[in-house]
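Review box. Two proteins, two foldings.
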Amino acid sequence: MITCKSARELEKMRQSGRVTARVLERLKDAVKPGVTTQDINAYADELIRADGGTPAFLGYHGFAGSICTSVNEQIVHGIPSSRTLRDGDIFKIDIGSCVDGWFSDMAASVPVGQVSAQAERLLDVTRTALAIAIEAVRPGIHVSDIGFAVQSYVEAQGYAVVRALVGHGIGQALHEEPPVPNYGRKGTGVVLKPGMVLAIEPMVNVGTFRVKTLADKWTVVTDDGSLSAHFEHTVAVTPDGFEILTLTDATPQVNHIPESLRRGEGGMRARQTPGRIQAIG
């Protein structure tokens, strides 16, 4: 069932989103060569709890981490471990918080030290894809219009959109209806209404869109071993457009895209396809 949140409920989600966004900013600053993914996970757990939240992912269907930590060809759901980050890695942090019973979900791909030109461009394209997806949000559009916008842009840049993993609704549960694919035809699926809240999360690969899951039954990687990037925000549908709920700023900003999502530029429009399985966060 799809739920539309009231003004009071959206304020609760803003509070949760601010915790998630503040913690993610501090985690980004902690990412450097020589740090382990478990170091970042432990720091995240400490920060979320200190800010009045609980880690949304810890124990979710048995997941062992407070955040998902994925490196290079790992797309999502990487389990924190003793793996040491190295200069040139792309490190993906997927983080969620629960505050007073309300969830928020966010992700960023962080360059470790000096990364290649290929990796830098992948980050820019994926970041821009998220901005394009969010800018598409408004009452009256179909959820597939978001995926069409992402796929059109990403494929025009020569990259592939992951189809086996999708975004999702969010609120008093980490995963709610509807699914939010990053591909598809315009004009199909659920029509957006004010009060709906979506976790929008493009996952973009340098090579094939195909993926596989490792023996740990969690970590999803590119099928061909190519690099992947992932960015995500929790976004509310407003009467006039959208509001990003996972921002550090306490002031609600309708139809505002933060500068951090505007670093990558590029063309638009391409094609379509189908599939789906919700990402953990």
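Next protein.
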Amino acid sequence: MAICERRTKPEYTDKEADLALSIVVRKAKAQDLDVVNALTDAMHKHLAGLYGLELSAEELKEEHYDEDELGNLYVAEDAEAGVVAYMSFSKGKDEWAGAHYELEHIVVREGFRHMAIGRKLFKALLDVANREGVNISTGTLARNKEALRFYKQLGFKQISVRLLLDLQKRILKQ
């Protein structure tokens, strides 16, 4: 888990900001769920691939969002391409982060990465967290170097490490 200290704005270049200008961030709607779930599948396949794991259709479907979870989903929409990214989060409280939002996922469609879209989504959550005076926490897999760099650029600091005793030899094959 990593904690983000409240900041007023994420730091990004003018070029990235210009590329993201046509992107609108909004709360997700029911009609967005097919695209959001397709992005979720792509993300989980990528993450599983980092460990040489192949997820079944059933395992992927378990991670899908439904209409009951729309309150915790934001999408980034391009006027021409439609929904190109999403962010999911939940509210939490624990002894380390205090009251906080748990940033679960920021997923940007291939071809739209490195255009500050993920930062634009994050800013929506950052604005809410600043208004409410709470922290933001997140986590990712150790081999997900791109996400680790992204979160570090946003100001997250590592405060914990999650360990796995892989008795099934599912992920950490010897």
